[in-house]
Amino acid sequence: MSGICDGRVVIVTGAGRGLGRAHALELGRQGANVVVNDLGSALDGTGTSTGPADAVVAEIEADGGVAVANGADVSDFAAAEALVAFAVETFGRLDAVVNNAGIVRDRMFANATADEWDAVMAVNLKGHFTVSRHAAAYWRNRSKAGEVVDARIVNTSSGAGIMGSIGQAAYSAAKGGIAALTLVQAAELARYGVSANAIAPAARTRMTEGAFEEMMAEVDEGTCDAMDPANVSPLVAWLASADSAGVTGRMFEIEGDKVGVADGWQHGPTEHRGGARWEAAELGDVVRRLVAEAPEPAPVYGT
């Protein structure tokens, strides 16, 4: 097969189901050699199985593409290193990492537990760190050896990470962390020929079906399905391709047929006190003026 990712080697994490599966299939259709990484866990993060990743590999191969399965746990730093090495050993190179793996532990903040918080951070935020960290070291070494590197990191944030979401404090914090991580990756890795972008998708997955049951309900056959995860994957394939060179440090919101660029934190109104430290008692009026001048923040999902 050939397409905009022809010959490129791409790791997709959490690729056994949902968005990750759709990304892997699209990348395969676009000519990429795909490493389908999935631990095969249940929705609550328990258990492992090679079945989901193997099934996606079979689908890609049946469609004429090239793929291999990998069951590394992306929350494990050493396992992520082995995943990157596996991709390079199997295909001779690595061109892109699509960080998609994630879990939820939905709970109102006042009821959240430390174990739930740690689990969400381990898979969502640390999982984005581990694979990209080892891939970045590989690309840096190739660049320092004189090779021309044209590599991509595609991260998965969320509307929850941009706006926040009621009942999803841990998930929102992790996805917000991914947004900030993307900015730093883009700034630091450009010198090595690596770009980094993130997506905030709206699509039907095991995680969203429970939280947004009505919105994520399947539609009748022949009807436009705005929540089909396959709607998101063409953007992911483009971001992983050579054609996306020069686009970096951006957050793309995508839902159905709509794609946009999120406008993140910006410096807002300021006041100076003429070189002297502010007195605590006088800051009330100052802060109220600044808040009145600043644009209203986007509402938190669920409010």
How would you describe what is shown here?
The structure is a single chain. This protein has helices at about 20-30, 50-60, 75-90, 115-145, 160-165, 170-190, 205-210, 235-240, 285-295, and strands at about 10, 35, 65-70, 95-100, 150-155, 195-200, 250-255, 260. An 8-stranded mixed β-sheet has the order 3-2-1-4-5-6-7-8, sandwiched between helices. It is about 40% helix and about 15% strand. It has 9 helices and 8 strands. The model has no long low-confidence stretch (mean pLDDT about 90). It has one domain (about 10-260): NAD(P)-binding Rossmann-like Domain (Rossmann fold, 3-Layer(aba) Sandwich). The protein is α/β, with parallel strands linked by helices.
